[in-house]
Please model this.
Amino acid sequence: MKSLDKELFLWFNQLGTEPLDFIWIFLTDKFVAIPFFGILMLLIWYKSNFKTAFVVGVFLVALVGLTDLFATLIKNWVERPRPCSVNSILNDQVRVVSDGLFKKVTTSNTEKCEKFSFFSSHAAVSFALATFLGLLLQKLRKSALYWMLLWAILVSVSRIYLGFHYPSDIFVGGVVGMVFGFIAFEIYQLIIQNYLPKFSFRPNK
Model:
């Protein structure tokens, strides 16, 4: 399995070309996601009311924080080197691009590559948000969950393309993220139904 993981990583990572780099860097950048989710929150506000959007926002912030914290704890426990780390046997074969649009490539890559790999925080947080919002927005459009999960997949795969994570890091991170997102949504539903029924997301426009 480890051998297959490394082979898949190298296969996809080395497909990279400069014309495609910007697309994957754009997808991976955390700051790019802010306006994207800002638009979704405005949509929830527009389709319901400010209080509902505020409660959803609180859940999303808590979900991101808890998912990222859990991923960090596991990383520091497992201590798996990233494929681009100086401690990795793949170090001289990895095509490392950039960790974001607004970061200096050399400094950013050096710092990022020496952090731990398993499992991907990007994948976990992306799938957690996608699952929670996808399930919520199904009240507006049934395909919402699929579109949100597609976004999460693209963000997650960008970590392989850019040279920072193995496929197994992405897969486990995605599964953990979906579990966190589903549990958070169920807790949200429970609290809304039993304690805050006036804040329920009922699209009225």
Observations:
- The chain has a mean pLDDT of 89.
